[in-house]
Amino acid sequence: MSFFSDVERELVVRGRAEIADGIVAIDLAPSNGRPLPRWTPGSHIDLVLGPGLERPYSLCSDPSDTTTWRVAVLRDDAGRGGSLAAHALAEGEVVRARGPRSTFSFPEDARGRVVFVAGGIGITPILPMVRSAAAAGVDWSLDYAVRTRTALPFADELRRHGDRVRLHVSDEGGRLDVAAVVADAGASPVWACGPARLLDALASAAGPATRLHVEPFVAGELAEPVRAEPFEVELLSTGEVLEVPPDRSILEVLEGHGVLAVSSCREGTCGTCETVVVEGEVDHRDRVLTPHERETSPVMMVCVSRAACDRLVLDV
Ligand code: FES
């Protein structure tokens, strides 16, 4: 995670433009005129759009541009207000932001063949990866699924890459054959971002040799927790034991007891609240950790994940 993950800064909206149906691109510059940190393709920033309204958005500009960051936001009228607040930002308005942060970092020294898959607004973290792969002379391809051509952002840029970009427009009968993409990728890495159903289809199609890197842009439907009963959380630093009732998250309980806990999306998609688990079995409910990471890394996202046992000991 970047050194800048928790740095909060004021940014000014330098420009905004509708780049597709329901999608606005917002250019943000530092209010103090000082250079912005560079970032790696796949990084996001957290925009603080109001009290309790902090949302992660992937950066889709040039990682080496230290004057301006660009995000693209899909308006979601059925959402919880983050995208509407972002769409309402006007030129000249100041907005606070944290990051950049990355849980989905594309290696700048990528070699060989790379397969990209995107769905809808999930193109935003993938686009800087595509540019990086193209600049490095990597053999890459992008399969991009959109609902309609009017909802297609960055059309001109994508068109310039010719046959390397395969568009699948559903209202024209286009269908992304996920199984074929995964089979064709073989042991080449697959980098994907999109709605949960696309990423679930990729995970289902993946075999033991598949090197799948995914980032969802919305939280999927959460399954029922493993335990319906309360459980306990022991804080390693103080030995204090807190009870987590079924209707509250570990994060909420920590905050309620004045424990400093950093968070952003609060829905298991950004990785900000990652916490080390010293003891106990976790009911992982986030969409950040891969199945392999869940088995091998002693961490959990405390905003959504819970205990699958009576007590967890956390490095808090
Ligand atoms: S706050 Fe985003 S994963 Fe927990």
Give an overview of the whole structure:
This protein has 316 residues and is an alpha/beta fold. It contains seven helices and 18 strands. It has three domains: 8-101, Elongation Factor Tu (Ef-tu), domain 3 (Beta Barrel); 113-216, Rossmann fold, CATH 3.40.50.80; 231-314, Ubiquitin-like (UB roll), CATH 3.10.20.30. A six-stranded antiparallel beta sheet has the order 4-3-6-1-2-5. Strands 9-8-7-10-11 form a five-stranded parallel beta sheet, sandwiched between helices. Helix 4 crosses helix 5. The protein starts with 7 loop residues before the first strand and ends with a strand. The structure holds FE2/S2 (inorganic) cluster (FES).
Helix/strand layout:
Layout (H helix, E strand, L loop, with lengths): L7 E13 L2 E8 L13 E7 L2 E6 L10 E6 L7 H6 L6 E8 L11 E7 L3 H13 L3 E8 L8 H6 L4 E5 L8 H8 L3 E6 L1 H10 L5 E6 L14 E5 L5 E4 L5 H7 L17 E6 L2 E2 L7 H6 L2 E3 L4 E2 L3 E4 L2
Parallel strand pairs: 7-8, 7-10, 8-9, 10-11, 12-18
Antiparallel strand pairs: 1-2, 1-6, 2-5, 3-4, 3-6, 12-13, 14-16, 14-18, 15-17
Helix pairs in contact: 4-5
The structure holds FE2/S2 (inorganic) cluster (FES).
Keywords: 2Fe-2S, Flavoprotein, Iron, Iron-sulfur, Metal-binding, Oxidoreductase
Organism: Microbacterium gilvum
Protein name: PDR/VanB family oxidoreductase
